[in-house]
Specification:
eleven-stranded mixed sheet; alpha+beta; globular; disordered N terminus; 29 helices; six-stranded mixed beta barrel
Length: 937
């Protein structure tokens, strides 16, 4: 007892209590964390990269979206300039609109007449009438497409016609020179994206197929996408407007009054000071847009999950590396909360570093792309950083890093101090109940994703089902994470027959689950994302490919003329361009049977036409009215309507619904007719697209009267007993009919059926007698066109191929980075074991084999089980993608499961090749011999 009593006592300062003690403890922990980050720069850089990358991507995406989205007061310099407002051409009925004019509508009330205004009048009289009504100066503004003729080509440009009364526009500010004084002078935009656009001297413009010589007399600064401002009458490719200049603002109450005249008004004052919702017409309120809180919540949850999975391996290995230090601290009296605080402090420091670097990188990249690089106009806009969204992303990323550090910190409660001090580190016993729960959650979520009905009607249009699908995906991920420990232990028990290196890797990952689980989880999540996206994109492409309708035969072209002043297509420009560039090409005019009411719409007329003519092809059991008015889709179910009619008429506006007329030789060539079929067509048969076409059909025709949006048909005249030649639907057949036709006849047959007086030349079918039309010939012809088009049919071209390759490349890189990062950190932790192996004679080849086996085993497990998870997630995502794609077009109503396509070969390549690549890189990373030291055990 004496010895114990004489033992010297260790005096300790009183423990700090309250908020001051808590702050002091955290201050010390953060200081230690900062020192550890500086000491281990490589590991810290890896954590910052893994956590900062998704934050940078999201900050970039949000900033770019905010920059290119021009709304509210930002629209003023782009659409109004210095004008107080703009008005569109008056309608015949009173108008309804939202304050930003993005929502538009009409009423049944006739519009009040504007004194002195006539739609057929000249610009001067129209402008004077608007001047008096709006108490300001109305400046006409019309935009059109044209081309500028340069030495290396004729690039397209956007032109604005200057008001002849003003010869200037509020949309641009003169920088140098002067405004045009006549139609021989033009000014150009300083910010034009057209390379080589002259800024002085002569310029040659191609407007409405006519070359116009002019002189550049000034340079302007404009926020619009206009390249050239000219007094030349350019036509109207866009809706013409009048810009209103006056000293007083156009208020919302005045806008509502002008709506009574049929005018749609965009006011600068209203954009700056939007009215309260109760002052907006009831019909327009729902068009103002609302925020999908559920989508933002799901996006935030996915961001947090991604950051946690990416950073968890680094924090787990970091905690493993600190075991001895933490055990030493615990042996000297440190409490568990102090140990956890030390680990959490690293998450705070590294999370803050990742957030700052990632946020700055994302915002900076968005600034460079949108403001400094020569990107398309759609990517440009006023620099705008959504600070609230960026702050939310950064806070969420910070929280995710802390959670990733919290997971290993919670395990410190089971820290074996004696074992760690001896150099023994084994994970605690497996919790089988957790694995059972994970198996149940995984099975339930997988069953829901695979079996839930997600067609266009039941899935896309129903928000709760979409949210349930997202919840099932998250549940599958969480359930998979709960299973990972059980998988590692189970596979290690059954690894006896594996090669020695793989056997040791399997057992090592099972023993050190604290660092193996985060690595497998992160790599598994990356693999699942890759496979899910591959299935989604493959299904999307399968849907588009199967529903693709060629415009003409492969390698041939369709040329569309420019519309004239009454809406008819004028093929003069494109025909002249073809003859000039490729005189050997064969051109066949495509005539279609049209409704004269649609070919007599004169925009200058005070009253629209009211009398029309309709014709349709009738099958047995189909009435004339049903053929014209029956819907192609059942609005109740979204499925194709059950009808005996073919829906082929001159009033059809869907794909393969029109009636065309071509010469007999062209019909025979395009459809590969046999000699017997050619004789039938020559004798008056109709060529119809379909598999179940009757041998004979009838044709009905009649006049109708159009009043108050109601068509009153007369008694149709029927021609019966017309033979048919059926062409079964396939890609070649679609191209032979072109995308708009479902029936074709010869000119002689059209005349006998009464169609001869109702034929309109709508397009030109062009082919090269020597083969397919080359790309350089297509460019040479298009360089001479303004409002016309010349398109060569190349077959189905994937619109998302490049995007898919970029995304897959990023995800594959992420998979390799996570695997190699974990392997490198694990190898750094196993330096003592490597030294022991080297001391007993292990060569560098042996140590390389060990490192390669470790990386291969981790990558193989993650790739295999990640692919299984990706198959379930990908099929659900494919249903959503295909359903959304189908929902955008009323002519489609498929069962989404029909189009699900699984790219087995790329998935197999990921499972087999990615682990080999990770193993090879890990094998090459082992270069020098470890430092041999005496081990403590």
């Amino acid at each position: 007892m004496t010895l114990l009593d004489d033992r010297p006592s260790v005096s300790r300062p009183p423990a700090a209590s309250g908020a001051a003690g808590w702050r002091g403890s955290w201050r010390v922990s953060l200081r230690m964390a900062r020192r550890d980050v500086r000491r281990h720069k490589g590991r810290s850089a890896i954590v910052a990269l893994m956590a900062g990358l998704p934050i940078a991507v999201l900050c970039f995406a949000f900033t770019m979206a905010s920059t290119v989205t021009i709304s509210g007061a930002e629209r003023i310099p782009y659409e109004l300039g210095t004008a107080a407002a703009s008005v569109m051409a008056p309608q015949e009925v009173a108008a309804l609109q939202t304050p930003d004019v993005n929502g538009q509508g009409t009423t049944d009330t006739p519009a009040q007449r504007i004194p002195g205004y006539s739609s057929s009048g000249d610009l001067a009289s129209q402008g004077a009438a608007l001047d008096a009504l709006l108490h300001g100066k109305a400046i006409y503004s019309a935009h059109a497409q044209g081309r500028v003729m340069l030495a290396d080509g004729n690039p397209p440009i956007v032109l604005e016609q200057l008001d002849p009364r003003a010869l200037r526009t509020p949309l641009a500010t003169l920088v140098s020179g002067h405004w045009p004084r006549n139609d021989q002078e033009v000014v150009v935009s300083r910010d034009s994206v057209v390379a080589g656009l002259p800024t002085s001297g002569p310029i040659t413009l191609l407007i409405d197929s006519t070359r116009r010589q002019a002189t550049v007399v000034g340079i302007v600064d404009t926020k619009t996408q206009t390249d050239v401002f000219t007094p030349i009458a350019i036509g109207n490719s866009y809706l013409p407007t009048w810009l209103i200049e006056r000293d007083t603002p156009v208020t919302w109450s005045e806008v509502r009054q002008l709506n009574r005249y049929g005018l749609l008004v965009l006011s600068a004052d209203v954009l700056r000071n939007p009215p309260p919702e109760d002052q907006i017409p009831v019909e327009m309120r729902e068009l103002s847009g609302n925020t999908d809180i559920g989508a933002y919540a799901l996006g935030a949850l996915f961001l947090a999950l991604i950051v946690i999975l990416l950073t968890a391996p680094a924090f787990a290995v970091s905690a493993s590396r600190q075991r001895r230090t933490l055990a030493l601290a615990a042996a000297n009296g440190a409490e568990q909360r102090q140990l956890r605080r030390a680990v959490l402090a690293q998450g705070v420091v590294l999370g803050g570093l990742s957030v700052v670097l990632g946020g700055l990188a994302g915002i900076g990249a968005a600034y460079v792309v949108s403001q400094r690089l020569p990107v398309p106009r759609s990517w440009q806009g006023p620099w705008d950083v959504p600070w609230l969204a960026v702050l939310g992303i950064c806070l969420l990323g910070m929280a995710a890093c802390v959670v990733a550090a919290l997971l290993p910190a919670l395990r410190l409660g089971r820290l074996d101090v004696v074992g760690v001090m001896k150099g023994q580190s084994v994970s605690p016993p497996l919790r089988r109940r957790v694995a059972l729960v994970g198996l149940f959650v995984t099975a339930a979520s997988t069953a829901f994703l695979l079996l839930a009905p997600m067609t266009r009607q039941k899935f896309v249009t129903t928000s709760p089902t979409r949210e349930a699908c997202a919840a099932a995906v998250i549940a599958l991920c969480l359930g998979g994470l709960m299973i990972v420990p059980w998988l590692l232990v189970t596979l290690a028990k059954h690894s006896r027959r594996l090669p020695i290196a793989l056997r040791m890797a399997a057992r090592d990952t099972a023993r050190h689950r604290s660092r193996s689980i985060p690595t497998v989880a992160a790599t598994l999540a990356a693999t699942a994302a890759i496979v899910a996206m591959m299935i989604s994109f493959a299904s999307y492409n399968a849907f588009d490919s199967r529903n693709y309708r060629p415009t003409t035969l492969q390698g041939e072209a369709v040329a569309w003329g420019s519309p004239d002043n009454v809406g008819r297509l004028d093929n003069t420009e494109v025909l002249a361009a073809i003859h000039r560039s490729q005189p050997s090409y064969l051109v066949t005019p495509l005539q279609t049977v049209t409704d004269p009411i649609n070919q007599a719409i004169d925009p200058t007329a005070d009253e629209p036409p009211t009398d029309g003519w309709a014709t349709t092809i009738l099958t047995p059991g189909c009435t004339f009215t049903a053929a014209l008015e029956a819907p192609t889709m059942d609005p109740a179910t979204g499925e194709p309507a059950k009808s005996a009619c073919l829906h082929l008429s001159n009033m059809g506006n869907g794909m393969q619904s029109g009636i065309g007329v071509l010469p007999l030789d062209e019909i025979s060539r395009r459809f590969d007719l046999t000699a017997s079929q050619r004789r039938q067509v020559a004798a008056g048969a109709l060529v119809l697209l379909g598999s179940n076409v009757p041998a004979q059909v009838s044709v009905g025709s009649t006049n109708y009267h159009f009043t108050d949006e109601v068509q009153q048909f007369g008694k149709p005249t029927l021609t019966t007993g017309i033979p048919t030649v059926a062409i079964p639907p396939h890609q070649h057949a679609y191209g032979a009919f072109t995308s708009s036709l479902g029936a074709v006849a010869t000119p002689e047959t059209a005349a006998r059926l009464g169609w001869g007086d109702h034929l309109t030349s709508t397009a030109l079918l062009v082919r090269n007698p020597s083969g397919a039309i080359p790309a350089d010939a297509e460019k040479a012809i298009n360089d001479q066109l303004t409002n016309s088009s010349f398109t060569v049919e190349q077959g189905f071209q994937s619109q998302i191929g490049n995007l898919v390759m970029i995304l897959l490349g990023c995800l594959l890189a992420l998979l390799l980075v996570t695997t190699l990062t974990s392997t490198a950190l694990a190898m750094a932790e196993q330096r003592a074991d490597d030294a022991t192996m080297a001391a007993v004679g292990a060569t560098r080849r042996t140590r390389r084999s060990m490192a390669a086996a470790h990386a291969y085993w981790l990558a193989l497990l993650a790739a295999f089980f990640g692919s299984l998870a990706g198959l379930a997630i990908g099929q659900a995502l494919a249903k959503l993608t295909v359903g959304s794609r189908a929902g955008s077009d009323a002519s489609f109503a498929p069962d989404a499961t029909v189009f699900i396509t699984i790219p087995w070969l790329p998935i197999a390549a990921i499972v087999l090749i990615a682990p080999l690549v990770a193993a090879a890189l890990a094998w090459l990373a082992i270069r020098k011999a470890p430092k041999v030291t005496r081990r403590a055990t």
